[in-house]
Amino acid sequence: MKSTMEILTKLQENSQKNHDEIFTRLYRYLLRPDIYFIAYQHLYSNKGAGTKGVNDDTADGFSEQYVTAIIEALRTGSYEPKPVRRTYIQKKNGKLRPLGLPVFADKLVQEAIRMILEAIYEPIFSIYSHGFRPGRSCHTALAMIKHEFTGAKWFIEGDIKGCFDNIDHSTLIGVLNRKIKDARFLNLIRMFLKSGYMEDWDFHETYSGCPQGGIISPILANIYLNEVDRYITQLKKEFDHGYNPRNFTEEYNTIRHKRDALHEKIKEAEGTMREQLIAQHKQLTKQLFRTPAKACTDKRLKYVRYADDFLIAVNGTREECEEIKAKLTDFVRDTLKMELSQEKTLITHSNTPARFLGFDVRVRRDSSVKHSGKRKMRTMNNKVELNIPLKDKVETYLLSHSIAKRDGKRLIPIHRPILLNRTDLEIVMIYNAELRGLCNYYAIASNFNKLVYFGYLMEYSCLKTLANKHRSRISKVRYEYRDGTGAWGVPYETKKGKRRMMFAKYSDCKGKDLTEKVPDLAYRYSHNTTSFEERLKAKVCEVCGCTDSDSYEIHHVNKVKNLKGKADWEKVMLAKRRKTIVVCHKCHMRIHHGTKTE
């Protein structure tokens, strides 16, 4: 019998070959045990795997019997998703974003549904969509902007108001129903959408939206917003007109033809006449480089979307941009039952930066001439520039994390009291992680070198923190941790000997290609079995070694580093360097309660 992963690979290949194919009888794949072992492998390492929902069900205690109970409930139709536990996380603007925490059994079923939906929809998603997709990221979206938006005149910045919270359930099911003809499968998705949430132990029904925190929420949002991608693609077909890369202005053509005629005369002239013609040729060349070349009579539309944020580049008039925005507003309101945020959906000239994914995007107007091979060209003119919003992003980060404080118009580094109880190695590791995280994200920025001051503030804040911890001075700390090359780092011991944790340099992040390669999706589904399935079916307790237990279960911990190494099971996990071990029921009860049960 074929594994479920092989079947999903086949579904994906069919979807790739025929974008209009209809899929039926998908519910039966949820009744196969192997899909839940794959789902567990995807979920167990997540930080939220040990987080409780409305009951005590977590990744701990997973077993074959656990899977059998889920499948039996699905087969008999008695499976009902539990309400999610609602909590809130703070946004940068101070507002609170609701976050739903499902129970682990629901996470497993949702992950199985997600794998099936991904196999069907991933091949037909728009190339302009980059959010919550395998092999795509913010950097792939920004790379597309840099390549595609060359020469744009206008930007339309788009944002859908409360996207995840306002997805219309009946519209979403209708979109799914166009591709999937399986009533039980669609009904299960509808049950997850309608499962409600618990807040302060009060139950609340859900009438719209996908809960943020739900495993299937990102792909359902992408399926929903793919309708926007399709609509804008249709607008693009209707709007694009008259593109010709050789469509130059009349003035530019006149000067160019004069220069070409002079070039022919120079070949035949001699002496003083030749020198005069060469001087005229140089003068015309200078004039040519000062003259706008592109006629701008063509109309083009480009588009990139990441989750519910999108950016449209338009070659045309502002009135045409207003018309496009109005059409899009009507489509989102009438078809998707949602609303464009009018405060964030802005029309700006491309010479004015548009904010997208934390970058300032603009199109340069630069007539400076540079050598490109053997020719002189205006290499930077009409090219897209991605800049770091230094004041809004970098300065805000430094101030909010107490790394620096404002002294007049400049920032100065300060020590961080919150880190004083950490070891020297941990302090340097924290600073390195923060520095590399921000610099890696902005590695593709045109003004990346402006982060030199950020690197200085991070380094001296770290030195001040170490000096404050040891009641010393920066110069003494630096002298103590010097490496002999002008740099410094904290030494530490490993099994292979002494090593040194050097303070990171911002410049090491420059030029890194951080755009993820789109993987072969069939390869992602090629593994037929998982280590969890093999380990559970081996029926051997990894603590006591017994082979005659009625039940073998997965014991799961959130972090291996938190284990003390005193109990026998902790020693096993530390030795294996795993967050999970397979144990018999008796050992599992002893781990949790300290006593054996018969």
- Tally of separate domains: 5
Strand content bin: 15-25%
Mean pLDDT: 86
Rough shape? Answer: globular
How far from one another are the termini? Answer: 38 Å
- Integer-rounded radius of gyration: 30 Å
- Secondary-structure-based class equals alpha+beta
**Which spans have pLDDT < 50 for at least 5 consecutive residues?**
516-529
Which strand order spans the largest sheet, edge to edge or round the barrel?
4-3-7-8
| Helix content percent band | 40-55%
Report the count of strand segments: 22
Please count the helical segments. 19
Largest sheet: 4 strands, mixed
Account of the protein in words:
- The two termini are 38 Å apart.
- The protein folds into 5 domains: 4-124 and 169-207, no CATH class; 127-163 and 219-247 and 294-387, Alpha-Beta Plaits (2-Layer Sandwich), CATH 3.30.70; 250-290, no CATH class; 390-527, no CATH class; 532-593, no CATH class.
- With 598 residues, the chain is of the alpha+beta class.
- The protein contains 19 helices and 22 strands.
- The longest helix is centred in the middle third of the chain and has 23 residues, at 217-239.
- This is Group II intron reverse transcriptase/maturase.
- Keywords: Nucleotidyltransferase, RNA-directed DNA polymerase, Transferase.
- It comes from Faecalibacterium prausnitzii.
- InterPro entries: AI2M-like_HNH (IPR049030), DNA/RNA_pol_sf (IPR043502), Domain_X (IPR024937), GrpII_Intron_Splice-Mob/Def (IPR051083), RT_dom (IPR000477).
- One of its GO terms (molecular function) is RNA-directed DNA polymerase activity.
